[in-house]
Design a protein that fits this description.
14 strands; 8-stranded mixed beta sheet; 6-stranded mixed beta sheet
Length: about 425
């Protein structure tokens, strides 16, 4: 069994994908630039109809660490993730989407933190690169304000999830999809607890991994330095669901057909998959809680707050009319399951949809992060975004008060030393 203390344990990057060849080529380039030898990159193709296979095989000719696997059953996203995960050899594993990427030196950085802490689970605040023509004509890179390395108490993390009902907004979430890496021992342990031997027991595979893995350990590591980054391309399913254009809706139908086969938890009235962050968070928590022998503790879920939070999400103005009605119906059935229909009706009666917001484009800043106009910095794909995030991130960390003070001290010290008077010139012999 591989342990964090081993010098160079095996790292496996799984990339379950379908019809993303244009973006996958750049994702694989971020894997090829890794300086870590004991690495395997497994691309699991869920029946792509584009040139995905050719892209992966060409990359594998240049870098034998890259492997192509065709999942000929075309099982859909969730089962394709499971298939790829089953192929991972003992060591550590992280999942990427076909438009995400690794940071320069990302795998070596993960290795260093895991070795130094002796832990089996690691997370970080992943930057986000948005490709052009997704939220505006130009791309955008989002970086979080610098964070401190720390050890996270798993029970405190789970309690926070139950309180805030927002797995996606928690930068410490150790989900092994882009923003975290876990030992295969923990993954197999989760699989052994489920009835069908699965790791991914919820409709979607991302956030559940962070919650279920946290419950398997007492503590996990959080790094202020990111080791992978998200990519948001026109092929992203969540983006297609929110879009109101008919082409985007049609593109998301196959995704919903697959995930609707897996209903949410019984306490969520076994409703079909919902993209509401509130409901996904609750589904992840309750599904993990019910695993036999799982070590996590999930506080009691307040379903009045669940309804309030879900309706607040719907009020953001991001959903078209038919999407809005679908999610309202799901929330109402959950209210009926808990005898809260009067509370639900009262909330709906006083709720108002906010004016539909245009996405923020260009450069800017908010309390959590900074946004960079990708065109201004000549960032055109996930590879260039990874390098930009690496070097801009370092510079940004240097500007923080503690680091900036050290820079000023060194500069002032150099100035004082170099400006002092030395000895007189020697006399020339006559």
């Amino acid at each position: 069994m591989t342990t964090p203390k081993e010098t160079d344990p095996r790292f496996t990057v799984i990339i379950p994908t379908k019809d993303r060849a244009e973006y996958l080529a750049h994702t694989l380039r971020t894997c090829m630039m890794q300086d870590y030898a004991n690495l395997e990159v497994l691309v699991s193709d869920d029946g792509s109809t584009d040139h995905t296979r050719d892209v992966v095989l060409e990359a594998s000719r240049q870098d034998p660490r890259i492997k192509y696997r065709s999942n000929e059953r075309n099982p859909g996203m969730r089962d394709n993730f499971e298939y790829a995960l089953d192929l991972a050899q003992p060591g550590f594993v992280i999942a990427l989407g076909g438009d995400d990427g690794l940071m320069p030196g990302g795998i070596s950085g993960m290795r260093d933190v895991l070795r130094d802490t002796g832990l089996e689970l690691l997370s970080w605040a992943a930057p986000l690169y948005t490709y052009p023509k997704v939220r505006g004509p130009e791309g955008q890179l989002m970086l979080y304000h610098p964070k401190q390395d720390r050890i996270v108490d798993s029970q405190a993390f789970l309690a926070r999830q139950a309180e805030h009902l927002n797995y996606l907004g928690d930068i410490e979430s150790p989900m092994s999809y882009v923003k975290g890496v876990a030992s295969t021992r923990l993954v197999r342990q989760v699989q052994s607890r489920s009835k069908d031997g699965r790791f991914y027991s919820c409709p979607t595979p991302d956030g559940y991994s962070g919650i279920v893995l946290a419950g398997e350990v007492k503590n996990f590591a959080f790094s202020g330095t990111p080791f992978a980054l998200y990519g948001l391309s026109p092929t992203s399913q969540g983006l297609n669901y929110l879009a109101n254009e008919e082409a985007a809706k049609k593109n998301s139908q196959s995704f919903f057909k697959a995930v609707d086969a897996v209903p949410m938890h019984d306490e969520l009235a076994r409703q079909p998959y919902s993209p509401l962050i509130t409901l996904m968070t609750v589904d992840y928590l309750l599904t993990a809680r019910d695993l036999p022998g799982w070590g996590g503790v999930v506080p009691r879920i307040d379903f009045r707050r669940v309804l309030e939070s879900g309706i607040n999400e719907l009020a953001h103005g991001l959903y078209g009319q038919d999407r809005l009605l679908r999610e309202m119906g799901i929330l109402r059935n959950i209210a009926l399951r808990h005898g809260l229909e009067a509370h639900f009706d009262a909330l709906i009666a006083k709720s108002r949809r906010k004016k539909e917001k245009s996405p923020f484009i260009g450069s800017g800043i908010n309390p959590r992060s900074i946004f960079l106009d990708a065109s201004r910095y000549r960032i055109g794909n996930i590879v260039e975004a990874a390098y930009a995030a690496e070097y801009l991130g370092r510079f940004y960390r240097d500007l923080m008060p503690r680091n900036l003070l050290n820079i000023v001290k060194r500069s002032l010290g150099y100035f004082l030393v170099s400006s002092g008077k030395g000895p007189l010139f020697p006399k020339l012999e006559q």
